[in-house]
Specification:
This protein has 263 residues and is of the alpha/beta class. 40% of the residues lie in helices and 25% in strands.
């Protein structure tokens, strides 16, 4: 590596990401001090590809709540700052420059230290960039100080939690999410619904009528309205509609899975 920022670690948790990993690593390999990979027992060439970029690879299991492995990747980093990425995400040159400036510049003693930064994620869905539907700018807390951030590891929808002040960076990083409707169903709707069903089992207090109403009527209508109307997802055309339908289907699918688990 050259011109590396030794204060910066890249943390990635992987599972069967051979199609995405090289592009993700190529965007950070020349300027990060280290790349740390926690792999959940991939059966493809993920680990083989990772070995071309780093020797800091931890092989473990693949828990249903994948944030457990993301936390392991944070714990294994040695840099003062950590950029947590997913394998299907790419840091743009503009964001790279901004990250380097923020992690190298010392903050004034009179200012409260910033321990984390929200980054703007731009989502590429079914071959198109989503600009509405509450998906752009899609701010996610990803750049954090070592020992000042953690994943609660309780829910599939959680973000990193940071102790102390947080800020925002201006430039985007790119998320190349589901490229086909089949991928969207398998990787997002069906998988996340399975995890939500298990959460319902843990938290449901046997009010079955209220639960059925929420998951079959209220939440689907709410999220279809939020995605398509309030956040103007309809302006993304058919792709905005498909994404909104996916957000809607999550809840009835989760409820059906819950009923099966309950038997």
């Amino acid at each position: 590596m050259h011109n590396c920022d030794m204060n910066l670690s890249i943390a990635i948790a992987t599972f069967n990401e051979e199609k995405n990993l090289a592009k993700c690593f190529d965007a950070v390999k020349d300027w990060a001090g280290e790349i740390v990979v926690v792999d959940g027992g991939s059966t493809d060439k993920t680990v083989e590809i990772a070995q071309k970029y780093t020797d800091k690879i931890i092989i473990t299991d693949n828990p249903p709540i994948f944030h457990l492995n993301k936390q392991k990747s944070l714990d294994a980093c040695s840099g003062d700052w950590i950029l947590q990425l997913d394998a299907d995400e790419i840091v743009t040159p503009e964001l790279k420059k901004e990250i380097i400036e923020e992690t190298r510049n010392s903050q004034p003693a009179t200012q409260k230290p910033i321990n984390g930064y929200f980054l703007s994620r731009k989502n590429y869905f079914l071959g198109h960039w989503l600009k509405k539907g509450g998906l752009y700018p899609d701010y996610i807390l990803r750049l954090v100080k070592k020992n000042k951030a953690f994943f609660p590891c309780k829910s599939i929808h959680e973000q990193i939690k940071v102790t102390g002040e947080v800020g925002y960076l201006k430039n985007d990083f790119l998320h190349y999410t589901n490229s086909t409707i089949a991928d969207y169903w398998k990787n997002s709707i069906d998988r996340n619904a399975s995890l939500t069903a298990k959460e319902i089992i843990k938290t449901n207090k046997n009010n079955s009528l209220s639960l059925a109403f929420n998951y079959l009527i209220f939440l689907p209508i709410k999220w279809f309205y939020l995605r398509l109307i309030r956040h103007k997802g309809i302006l993304d055309g058919i792709y905005g509609v498909i994404f909104a339908l996916g957000s809607t289907l999550h809840y009835p699918v989760a409820y059906i899975k819950y009923l099966k688990l309950k038997k």
